[in-house]
TrEMBL record:
GO terms for molecular function: 3-phenylpropionate dioxygenase activity. It is an enzyme of class 1 (oxidoreductase). Transmembrane segments: none annotated. This is Bifunctional 3-phenylpropionate/cinnamic acid dioxygenase ferredoxin subunit. The keyword Oxidoreductase applies. Signal peptide: none annotated. PROSITE patterns: RIESKE (PS51296). Its EC number is 1.14.12.19. CDD domains: Rieske_RO_ferredoxin. Residues 4-99 form the Rieske domain.
Amino acid sequence: MAFVRVCALSELETDTPKRVEVDGTPVSVVRTEGEVFAINDICSHANVSLSEGEVEDCAIECWLHGSSFDLRTGKPSGLPATRPVPVYPVKIEGDDVLVSVTQES
Ligand code: FES
């Protein structure tokens, strides 16, 4: 499983998603509740960037129609989205945030 450095931990503001690309895959990196999560940046309902949404209760809300996706599992908590969004393993090494998109966590 190849981990790629995506950003510095110190530049990640709490509850402010950061959009990055990992091996061509758009990923939203989110620091919240003392942890860092990585979730595919495209909503499973339509082609919308999740990193433009709000973070609350360890979930990211799609700004377009309001489905929230659990940052730990990628599962939507409510309609209109019904399919989960892939989530990816994250490693913190010093001030480096690393994400692997070759395997979903
Ligand atoms: S595009 Fe995300 S919930 Fe509709």
